[in-house]
């Protein structure tokens, strides 16, 4: 596959007709939109859009990725098309990133044309979820319980953490399903996790019941925004990098607000 | 005895990594890689801490290991390496430190000058250490990728 190194290089491609060019920019930006929605880093988004566009017959693409959307121009011969796509961030889904990665390789190898690409993208955008919600609830509870073991909790703390974070995860899913504001979801989830974990404190279960309080809110840690933000900033994508860092810091503050609220309630009970 | 502690550590952190990979809806084929990366990284960190190394440095080394495992699994399963590195680094998040620092900050609001000095000290040390560990963690998992996963730039 020939990838042009600059827009001024002499290109041996047949110029695309105007309607085909429209189609190519639509498909390439659709893939980019899914990546931005589900938590890919900016370099990956830009490269994927560029690969798909050039593999489907364009000479060159200019892409700007913003936290709120994507702007791209495709060039083919003397024709060009520019499009803006608004993107709303909906969460993290690594399966979508994996599928788009696979699809972009198929396109580059010439195994998928525009029509196959459209069918595949439609399938991927009908949100792929390999695990049902109860598996997620159980595994998140288990993960936080295992974290409580890592910070030195005993078996009682393990059980309390399991039920606290599984319950908090259930509440979080219910709130996300009802499209509540992201910050309200974070604060409420953290508060619920604290209140459930404080049962261990009230009944004085285990050697150090406070460990359950610390471990049960960890299901909210903004790992994806923070790591992506560091990577974006390292690679020179400052706009998306800084906006993701602010997102991560806000989530962390939201966790802290839930913790503070719960602990001031508990103090009323003398704990 | 040390070996047993480290193996137990690896076991629990592998469970943490798989749990968070499922929360992030990682493809099922990637779960094994997440478990290996997370388990290895945290066990290596525990090993260096038992040898007496500072937790920040040990975290950096553990995170580097996770970064290299993520590159290996990303090539083997042909999937983005972020899936493995982000899920793998979750066990090393300094949750207890951050939690303690926040508790000290809250208690600061109703303290006397005598007790307040200690609380302020605890809170600032906790926050600084949390920040340093988080930085070591992100740098550690990014460096292998930035150094060894350079493709010919297409843009």
Q: How can the largest sheet of chain B be summarized?
A: none
Sum up the overall morphology of chain B in one term. Answer: elongated
Oligomer: heterodimer
Low-pLDDT stretches of chain B are none
Task: Summarize model confidence as the mean pLDDT of chain A.
Answer: 89
Question: How many extended strands of chain A?
Answer: 3
Q: Please provide the ordered H/E string of secondary-structure elements of chain B.
A: HHHHHH
Give the structural class of chain B.
mainly alpha
Radius of gyration of chain A: 23 Å
User: Helix and strand string of chain A, N-terminal first?
Assistant: HHEEEHHHHHHHH
Rg from Cα of chain B: 18 Å
Main beta-sheet annotation of chain A: 3 strands, antiparallel
Query: Can you count the helices of chain B?
Result: 6
Count of discrete domains of chain A = 2
Calculate the terminal CA-CA distance of chain B, rounded to whole Å: 53 Å
Structural class of chain A: mainly alpha
From the spread of the alpha carbons, the general shape of chain A counts as elongated
Helix coverage percent of chain B = over 70%
Helix content of chain A: 55-70%
Q: How would you explain this protein's 3D organization?
A:
The complex is a heterodimer of chains A (271) and B (155). Chain A is mainly alpha-helical and 271 residues long. Chain A folds into 2 domains: 18-125, no CATH class; 133-268, no CATH class. In chain A, 64% of the residues lie in helices and 8% in strands. Chain A has helices at residues 18-37, 42-55, 94-108, 114-125, 133-150, 155-177, 182-202, 210-216, 223-234, 238-268, and strands at 60-66, 69-76, 79-86. In chain A, strand 2 and strand 3 form a beta hairpin. The longest helix of chain A is centred in the C-terminal third of the chain and has 31 residues, at 238-268. The radius of gyration of chain A is 23 Å and the shape is elongated. With 155 residues, chain B is mostly helical. Chain B has a domain at 2-92 and 139-148. Chain B is 79% helix and 0% strand. The longest helix of chain B has 36 residues, at 113-148. The radius of gyration of chain B is 18 Å and the shape is elongated. At the A-B interface, helix 2, helix 3, helix 5, helix 8 and helix 9 of A face helix 1, helix 4, helix 5 and helix 6 of B.
